[in-house]
Amino acid sequence: MTATDWTRRTAAELVDALAAGETTSVELTQAHLDRIAAVDGAVHAFLQVDTDGALAQASAADERRAAGSPASALDGVPIAVKDVLATKGLPTTCGSRILEGWVPPYDATVVARLRAAGLPILGKTNMDEFAMGSSTEHSAYGPTHNPWDLDRIPGGSGGGSAAAVAAFEAPLAIGTDTGGSIRQPGAVTGTVGVKPTYGGVSRYGLVALANSLDQAGPVTRTVLDSALLHELIGGHDPLDSTSIDQPLPALVEAARQGATGDLSGVRIGVVTELGGEGYQTGVLARFQESVDLMVKAGAEVVEVSCPSFVHALATYYLILPAEASSNLAKFDAMRYGLRVWPEGIENASAEEVMRATRDAGFGDEVKRRIILGTYALSSGYYDAYYGQAQKVRTLVTRDFEAAFAQADVLVSPTAPTTAFRLGEKVDDPLAMYLNDLATIPANLSGVPGISVPSGLAEEDGLPTGVQILAPVQADDRVYRVGAALETLLEQQWGGPLLAKAPTLDALRDGSSLASSGTGDQA
Amino acid sequence: MPESPRSITRDEVAHLADLARIDLSDAELDHLAPQLSVILESVAAIQGVAGDDIPPTSHPLPLSNVFRADEVVPSLTAEEALSGAPEAEQQRFSVPRILGDEQ
Amino acid sequence: MTETLLSFDDVLERYDPALGLEVHVELNTASKMFCGCATVFGAEPNTQVCPTCLGLPGAMPVVNRTAVESAIRIGLALNCSIAEWCRFARKNYFYPDMPKNFQTSQYDEPIAYDGWMDVTVPIDGGDDETFRVEIERAHMEEDTGKSTHVGTTGRIHGADYSLVDYNRAGIPLIEIVTKPIRGAGAKAPEVARAYVQQLRDLIVALGVSEARMDQGNLRADVNLSLSPKGSGTLGTRTETKNVNSFRSVERAVRFEMQRHAAILDGGGSILQETRHWHEDTGITTSGREKSDAEDYRYFPEPDLVPVAPSREWVEELRGTLPENPTARRARLQTEWGFSDLEMRDTVGAGALGLVEETIAAGAAPQAARKWWLGELARRANDTDTEIGALGVGPADVAAVQQLVDAGTINDKLARQVFEGLYAGEGTPEEIVAARGLAIVSDDSALGAAVDKAIVENPDVADKIRDGKVAAAGALIGAVMKEMRGQADAARVRELILEKLT
């Protein structure tokens, strides 16, 4: 390679290079677009690539920088956005047929902040339909492939964002996390993902899966990059009634402090219920190794018990479908999206068209959850299901409170296993749901969490992740401890974990897989 | 607790699909009903976990009284509003004939 | 289809009606309930819409503070308790007019609950009658869009397609629901009408809505059921939707009473259903059947946080209420201890406010009433003057009464003080002094007058000497005459008895 490969740089490094005049936003945006063209046929991280739009934004960023007035620290650094966030003028499908071709007339607040900060939007990333899934296989537009092994899942629902970052197609991406959809893909692709405190990042324009659980956040390759992005997209939004009207903690500062690798005085709680049975041997080994490293760096480790966490999965699978069944009612063929006329009915009624469209437009997993949620909310069952789940949610929160009285942060493996093979669990919903075992409690209680790569499982050579959780509004702690762990591990590995991933460069050299730029998106 | 873990019948799934306005085919009903039963039996395990004295959590954060001032902000243009419409006529959304009453 | 109806008199002979009224009030806020879109009536279609009120994927609601204030003020005006903490809920059902396919409403936590309104029902040839309507709740919700049906008939049924304008979607509504109104009997239709009419007056006085039924700012749904006379049970109800005038409310109740009774008399049972009111023909027709137990799958709206009005805020809003005339009358009657007749006369004389101010200035309620309805009402009548424009105000009346209470003057002398007041002779005290009206209770002055009276009425004096004490009144009268009414009557009596027994 003769020229600098800008795609291998972190966002923080790109910021420096832009500031130093070593490159331009147009150059590095183009480099990422080229990388997408080269590898995304095989990875299928993107549903939509906005080449013209991204280059136009890059050009504007270069003009601002030339004029000495960059719009933000990250002005000119390109980004990928999960297809669940509304982007004005750019199709937004949520991975569903029912929204095929829908072009929102407005921007989500997160997207508006990215645009205002000057980040060229490369495109929209693949996801499980309406964020329902842990593998991206429930996307109506075909699965995303894990860059570590193209036969394996990249996690989900935000597999597209994680794979885009892991495959060096984007330095930064936005994900959303309802039960682990940022953190679990991070773990299985060897990338960093952060679920901020609920209410810390605006949900306005985020197509809701489960409103009381959803949270948008950064998907990156380093902890510092996540902090930079988080500070940019976070903070109060008057358009989101559940948004916290207080300043964010100093996240970048926390990440820089953590990067020194010193954890003196930090109390780390290992959650008994988030480990052991059901967790892959190699995942547990890498987790123990991370804990040991943190102890060596001065942390004090305590074991904490959160007994209600064993009910978190069931609680989640009542609350989520209930909220989702109501959220997804709006997809009815009347105002936008797909309209399917039922076969064999003359002059069909609105109701008949709704039924036919919703049958044709939603995939199996979406239908499963809508029906489950309809059941959980229906009269006669509300108290036993939805009402009970809301109470267990209180118990989970109390467990967190008790645990955080003993420890500054809680740690666990992010996901119980490494990436499984595509197709392995696609029609076994319960097995699929178990992927979110460790990540769900944080969503139920609104606490922030990060997943940091913790190495490769010995048995399959695939990435694993460590999850670090902190109390509500103490997002700075996940950055401090996450950055410290990242530093300690990279010292041990001699570089980032992703350096060990397949380069996919073979695809660049004319492999048939590289022929299509953006996958099977219509 | 009101009831023990239970499965869900094919007829119940059909009724729920009707409430949710999804035209499930017979094949889909055959496929989904047993899966839903398994999921339901699994999630039903939380019944009885929390006693009557435990308050429900509907919002992860204890916020209240979030209001906006009664001020008009610009709307979308009619063109933007109708941009996604499957069909439009006379600056209105054109929808198939509506049967039944509003509730 | 022609309905069989029972004559109204026969209905009343055999059945007791129970009414229930649900009134939707469209608020006159500048912007919508959950977004900043304008609410101007008659705007071009789909020009007052945004991602939120169009239900676009991803959009979120934020509550309009003024709408909450209006809801609280309506609740207070209806004597409701205001929730310390309440939430919005989603009412899930599919309808093309409703962009999200759920209505953001309130379910088991309404912002206002348990109130009442006293409705005055005019009775032909008799006095007005007051009927207390209990209010179950008043809650906040949002309106739907409007569809136009295009096709051969122009109506919903048989239309080929519909066109929808969402300008109205999301406009704030307050739904006011009564408890079952029972015991109205023959007056049920009038009670229903009077309730809606007086509710409208109240809404207008509050300034929270244009409250025009013809424009749909105020929409009434009428629930009605019959039960066998004296059974005390509640029968199956029907809900007649969108009754769009006061007169129609009355007619719809009457029609449904007669229709129900005919069915019940024929051994049939009432179908729980929605009925449509037809203004032109004055009948209702069957709408949607309700027996299928609609399952709205309510749950707390997760995109909104609870509304927890502080008591300070509620009291501040209470301070902005115009007092309901009926409520005010009831309150004052209780405070003053007036009988119904005394109260009605006071109101009829237009003296309610004057009496209230006189009492506030220190007079006892009965005394205040007595002067205003007696001396002053007569004066107003004689001089053909408004009672409030006599040149004698509440403070003057209170001052006169104070002189009476102090024993400085008596009621008879007080009339002379009023004469002085009409003539502009100064304050009551000045008039008493200037006209020398103060009562004499000094024994030397009174003794001489008593002696004179005894001398001048020997036969009366003899009667008293013989033990007929009751005859003393004649001598007291003579003394009072001698003293021009300014004698202390009680002392005079004592002196007479001392001298003659």
Automatic annotation (TrEMBL), chain A:
Protein's UniProt keywords contain Nucleotide-binding: yes
GO terms of biological process kind: translation
Pfam families xrefs: Amidase
UniProtKB keywords: ATP-binding, Ligase, Nucleotide-binding, Protein biosynthesis, Transferase
Keyword ATP-binding: yes
The reaction(s) this protein catalyses: L-glutamyl-tRNA(Gln) + L-glutamine + ATP + H2O = L-glutaminyl-tRNA(Gln) + L-glutamate + ADP + phosphate + H(+)
GO cellular component: glutamyl-tRNA(Gln) amidotransferase complex
Active site residues per record: K82, S157, S181
GO MF annotation: an example: ATP binding
Cited PROSITE patterns: AMIDASES (PS00571)
Documented EC number(s): 6.3.5.7
Domain Amidase stretches: 27-478
Summary of the function given for this chain in its UniProt record: Allows the formation of correctly charged Gln-tRNA(Gln) through the transamidation of misacylated Glu-tRNA(Gln) in organisms which lack glutaminyl-tRNA synthetase. The reaction takes place in the presence of glutamine and ATP through an activated gamma-phospho-Glu-tRNA(Gln).
Alphabetical list of PANTHER family matching this protein: GLUTAMYL-TRNA(GLN) AMIDOTRANSFERASE SUBUNIT A, TRANSAMIDASE
Sequence similarity: Belongs to the amidase family. GatA subfamily.
Subunit structure of this chain's protein: Heterotrimer of A, B and C subunits.
Protein name per its UniProtKB record: Glutamyl-tRNA(Gln) amidotransferase subunit A
TrEMBL record, chain B:
Entry-linked Gene3D superfamilies: Glu-tRNAGln amidotransferase C subunit, N-terminal domain
Annotated GO biological process: glutaminyl-tRNAGln biosynthesis via transamidation; regulation of translational fidelity; translation
Keywords: ATP-binding, Ligase, Nucleotide-binding, Protein biosynthesis, Transferase
Annotated region (Disordered), positions in chain: 79-103
Coiled coil: none
Superkingdom field: Bacteria
Pfam families: GatC
Protein name (Swiss-Prot/TrEMBL): Aspartyl/glutamyl-tRNA(Asn/Gln) amidotransferase subunit C
Family matches, as PANTHER family: GLUTAMYL-TRNA(GLN) AMIDOTRANSFERASE SUBUNIT C, MITOCHONDRIAL (PTHR15004:SF0)
HAMAP family tied to this protein: GatC
Keyword Nucleotide-binding included in the entry's annotation: yes
Biological role: Allows the formation of correctly charged Asn-tRNA(Asn) or Gln-tRNA(Gln) through the transamidation of misacylated Asp-tRNA(Asn) or Glu-tRNA(Gln) in organisms which lack either or both of asparaginyl-tRNA or glutaminyl-tRNA synthetases. The reaction takes place in the presence of glutamine and ATP through an activated phospho-Asp-tRNA(Asn) or phospho-Glu-tRNA(Gln).
Catalytic activity: L-glutamyl-tRNA(Gln) + L-glutamine + ATP + H2O = L-glutaminyl-tRNA(Gln) + L-glutamate + ADP + phosphate + H(+); L-aspartyl-tRNA(Asn) + L-glutamine + ATP + H2O = L-asparaginyl-tRNA(Asn) + L-glutamate + ADP + phosphate + 2 H(+)
GO molecular function, one term: ATP binding
Its EC number(s): 6.3.5.-
UniProt enzyme class: ligase
Keyword Secreted among UniProt keywords: no
Family note: Belongs to the GatC family.
Record InterPro entries: Asp/Glu-ADT_sf_sub_c (IPR036113), GatC (IPR003837)
Complex formation: Heterotrimer of A, B and C subunits.
Automatic annotation (TrEMBL), chain C:
GO term, biological process aspect, one: glutaminyl-tRNAGln biosynthesis via transamidation
Cross-referenced InterPro entries: Asn/Gln-tRNA_amidoTrfase_suB/E, Asn/Gln-tRNA_Trfase_suB/E_cat, Asn/Gln_amidotransferase, Asn/Gln_tRNA_amidoTrase-B-like, GatB, GatB_Yqey_C_2, Gln-tRNA_amidoTrfase_suB_CS, Gln_synth/guanido_kin_cat_dom
Keyword Protein biosynthesis: yes
EC numbers: 6.3.5.-
SMART domains according to UniProt: GatB_Yqey
Reactions this protein catalyses: L-aspartyl-tRNA(Asn) + L-glutamine + ATP + H2O = L-asparaginyl-tRNA(Asn) + L-glutamate + ADP + phosphate + 2 H(+); L-glutamyl-tRNA(Gln) + L-glutamine + ATP + H2O = L-glutaminyl-tRNA(Gln) + L-glutamate + ADP + phosphate + H(+)
Keywords assigned by UniProt, alphabetized: ATP-binding, Ligase, Nucleotide-binding, Protein biosynthesis, Transferase
Domain Asn/Gln amidotransferase: 353-500
Alphabetized Gene3D superfamilies for the sequence: 1.10.10.410
Domain of life: Bacteria
Molecular function via GO: asparaginyl-tRNA synthase (glutamine-hydrolyzing) activity; ATP binding; glutaminyl-tRNA synthase (glutamine-hydrolyzing) activity; transferase activity
Keyword Coiled coil found: no
Top EC class for this record: ligase
Pfam families linked: GatB_N, GatB_Yqey
NCBIfam families for this protein: gatB, PRK05477.1-2, PRK05477.1-3, PRK05477.1-4
Function, as annotated: Allows the formation of correctly charged Asn-tRNA(Asn) or Gln-tRNA(Gln) through the transamidation of misacylated Asp-tRNA(Asn) or Glu-tRNA(Gln) in organisms which lack either or both of asparaginyl-tRNA or glutaminyl-tRNA synthetases. The reaction takes place in the presence of glutamine and ATP through an activated phospho-Asp-tRNA(Asn) or phospho-Glu-tRNA(Gln).
Record's subunit section: Heterotrimer of A, B and C subunits.
Assigned protein family: Belongs to the GatB/GatE family. GatB subfamily.
Protein name (record): Aspartyl/glutamyl-tRNA(Asn/Gln) amidotransferase subunit B
Organism encoding this protein: Nocardioides guangzhouensis
